[in-house]
Amino acid sequence: MKRILLILSLLCLPFLAGGCGSDDRAQLTVYNWGDYMDPEVIAQFEDEYNCRVNYETYTSNEDMYVKVKNSSDTYDVLVPSDYMIERLISEAMLRPITKDNIPNLSNIDAAAQNLAFDPGNQYSVPYFYGVLGIVYNTAQVTEPVDSWNLLWNDKYASKILMYDSIRDSMGVSLKRLGFSMNETNETNINAARDALISQKPLVMAYVTDNVKSLMASGDAAMAVVYSGDAAIIMSETDHLGFAVPKEGSNAYYDNFVIPKNAQNPELAEQFINFMLTPEIAAQNIQYVGYSSPNTPALALLDSSWADNAGFNISSEDLAHSEIFKDLPSDVMEIYNRAWTEINVSK
Amino acid sequence: MKSFKEYIAYPYGLWMLIFIAVPLLVVIWFSFLSNPDFKAGIYTFTLNNYQEFIDPVYLELLYRSFLYAVIATLICFFIAYPLGNLIVSLPAHRQNLMIVLMIIPMWVNFLLRTYAWMVLLSGSGLIAQFLGLLGFRDVSLLYTQSAVILGMVYNFFPYMLLPIYTSLKKIDPDLLRAATDLGANHFQMFVKIKLPLSLPGIVSGSMMVFMPAVSTFVISNLLGGGKYMLIGNLIEQQFLTLNNWNFGSALSMVLMTIIFLVLGLARLITGKELDTGGQIL
Q1: A187 CB within 8 Å of a chain B CB
Q2: pLDDT value at position B241?
Q3: pLDDT value at position A2?
Q4: pLDDT band at B39 (very low <50, low <70, confident <90, very high)
Q5: Would the CB atoms of A5 and B243 count as touching at under 8 Å?
Q6: What rounded mean pLDDT belongs to chain B?
Q7: Shortest CA distance from A199: residue in chain B
C-alpha cells in the first residue's frame, strides 16, 4: 500500500514540473513589455522561419531584471530600457550582437544609435524610443503646459496623476528643482523627495496602466506619461494635448538585447532583423503606437501619425532630455528610501 | 498494517511539506542573509534586515496597516452580527438561500470585483452620478482611505458572516427560552447567553477578515491609487521592484509573527482551538 502511494506521488511529479515537448520546431523565447508587440507580427515570423515563439511580458525593467537574474528560465530576446541595458552589460549578462546578421540595422536613424548606455551598439538594437511628458485635458487646463510646476499647482488638486515608478516620479521632481534626472547628491535627492511629499495631497493617484481611462473620462486633468502612451491615449480621445516641460525630461530607448545564456541566439538575431524590416516595423508601430527610429517604416505610415504630438517628438525636446543612467547601488538605496517615505507619507 | 485512512493523508503531508514548510523555511533563511550571491556561493549571516525594520517610517506603516484592518474587521462585525441573527431567525430553506446569495459573489474573481469597484467609485461612475443628482458635485470616492477600507469590507465580509451564522445557528433555542422563562430581559439574554455562545464564531470571523486585510496589497493599490501604502505593498515592492528579497523576507516574518501573536490572543479569549464552532461552511 505504502509503495503504491509512493509510486503514485512520484508519477505526479512530472505534472508539477510541467512542460510538454510535442512541438519539434525551433523555439524562441521573447520577454517583452506588455502590449509592446503586434501578435500578428510574431505569427508571421513563426510562419516564415518555421519556429515557435514563446512570448512573455513584464511591466517594468525592474520586474524583468529580477526575473532574468533569479529565474532558471532562459530567454532569447529581451527589450530593456537604456539604464537597464547599462546594468545588464556591466553585469556581463548580455551577448554581443553580430551586426552582419542584422542587415536591417541600416534602417535605424543614427540619432538612436551609439548612445552612452551602449557605445557602438555592441549589445543592443533600437526598437522604440520616447520622452516623459505631461498629457493634459485641453478643456480643463487653461494655462500653457510648459513646466513641471503645473503638477504642483493646487488649482488642479485631486486631478493630477503621477507615474508609479521611483525613477520617473523622482526624476520629475529633480528636474523641476533644476537637478539632474541622474542626481547622486543625497541632499538634492532628499529635496526632490520633500517636494513630492508636499505634492502628495494634490495627487489623485500614482498609476501605471490606469491613465488611459482616467484621462478619457475627464476624471483627471493631467498625467505624467511616456510619449508613446500619450500617443495612444490621444489617438483615442479628443481634447488632449501632450507637452514636454522646458526644464527638460527623461528620454528613453527600449532596445532588443540577447542574454548571454540564450538558447537560440542565431534565431534571436533573425527575429530582431525581421522586426526591423520596414513593412513589419510599420505594422508593429501601428499596433504599439510608440515613436520608432525606423526611418523607412515611418515613410509607410499615413500622415495622421506625424500630427500626433506623442508620436512625433521634436528633436529639441529630445535634445534637452536626459537618458537614465544605471545608478550605483548605494545611491539607489537613497532613492528607494526616499520613495518609501513618499509612499508612507500622508 | 495501518488503516487505509492513515495512508490517504500521505499525499497531503507531502503537499504541505513541498508547498508550505519548505517555502517558509526558505523565507526564514533569506531573512537572515545580506546580499547573498548564490552563484558564487557567498552567504553572509546578518540581523540587519530585522534591525532595519525598527524605523519610524516602517513602524508607521505597520500601524496604518493594523488600523485599516481593525476598522475593516469592526465594520464587518457590526454588519455581519445583526445580519447573522436575522438569517438564523428565518425558516430553514430561506436561510440556505440567503447564505448562497452571500457566497455567489465570491465565485467571481477577487480582482474583477475590485476592478468593478474602481468603475463604480470613479468620478464618472454610477455612485458619483447619483450623488451629482442630489447636488453633491465633484465628490471623489476612488483613491481615498475610505475606498481602501470599503474594498476590504466588501471582499472579506463573507468570511465574517459565515462563522457568525454557524455559531448562532448552533445555539439551542431552548437555552434562550429558558433564560426568558427565568426572568432575563432581552438585553440580559443577549449579554449572558447569546454573545458568549457565539463568541467562537465572532473570534474566528474576525481572524478570517483581519488576516487578509492586514496583509493585502492589491486592494490598497487599486482602490487607494498607490497613495495609501500598507505593509503588504512594502513587501511586494521589496520583491518585485527593489530586488531586496532579504528585507522583504524579514518583513514577511515580522508580519507573520504578529499575526501568530494575534491568533494566540484570540485563542486565549475563546479558551480553546479556534476552529471549534466557527468553521466556514
Answers
A1: no
A2: 79
A3: 52
A4: low
A5: no
A6: 88
A7: B227
Cell output for A178 = 533644476
Structure-block grid coordinates of residue A114: 551609439
Look at A133-137, B42-46, B121-125, B274-278 and tell me which has the smallest mean pLDDT: B274-278
In chain A, which stretches have pLDDT less than 50?
1, 10-11, 14-21
The per-residue pLDDT for B1 is 56
Domain ranges of chain A: 26-128+253-313, 130-251+318-344
Set of cell numbers at residue A234:
490621444
pLDDT at residue number B281: 35
% of chain B beyond a pLDDT of 70: 93
Mutate to test the interface with A, among B243, B246, B251 (most CBs of A within 10 A): B243
Q: Which three cell numbers stand for residue B160?
A: 465574517
Domain spans of chain B, in order of start: 56-270
Nearest-Cα distance to chain B for A112, in Å, is: 27
Q: Which residues contact A109 (CB under 8 A, 6 or more apart)?
A: A126, A293, A294, A295
- Supply the pLDDT for residue A288: 92
Quick one: A26-128+253-313 is in which CATH superfamily?
A: Periplasmic binding protein-like II (3.40.190.10)
The CATH class that applies to domain B56-270 reads mainly alpha
Q: Which of A217, A343, A345, A346 to mutate to test the interface with B (most CBs of B within 10 A)?
A: A343
Residues of A in contact with B64 (CB under 8 A): 344
What would the CATH number be for the domain defined by A130-251+318-344?
A: 3.40.190.10
Phi, psi (rounded to 5 degrees) for A313: -85, 135
Q: Is B234 exposed, middle or buried (0-12, 13-18, 19+ CB in 10 A)?
A: buried
Residue B7 to residue A2, Cβ atoms within 8 A: yes
pLDDT at A249: 95
Residues A296, A300: Cα–Cα separation, whole Å = 7
Answer for the pair A88, A217: CB distance below 8 angstroms, yes or no: no
Predicted pLDDT at B137: 74
**Which residue of A lies nearest to B245 if distances are taken between CA atoms?**
A66
Q: Does B251 touch chain A (CB under 8 A)?
A: no
Position B127 scores a pLDDT of 87
Q: Please indicate whether the domains covering A26-128+253-313 and A130-251+318-344 agree at the CATH topology level.
A: yes
Q: Is the pLDDT confidence value at B126 over 90?
A: no
Q: Does A214 touch chain B (CB under 8 A)?
A: yes
Q: What angle do CA A290, A295, A301 make, to 5 degrees?
A: 60
| Residue linked to cell 552589460 | A89
Best mutation target, B242, B244, B246, B249, to test chain A (most A CBs within 10 A): B242
CB of B124 within 8 Å of a chain A CB? The answer is yes
Residues 6+ apart with CB under 8 A from B14: A9
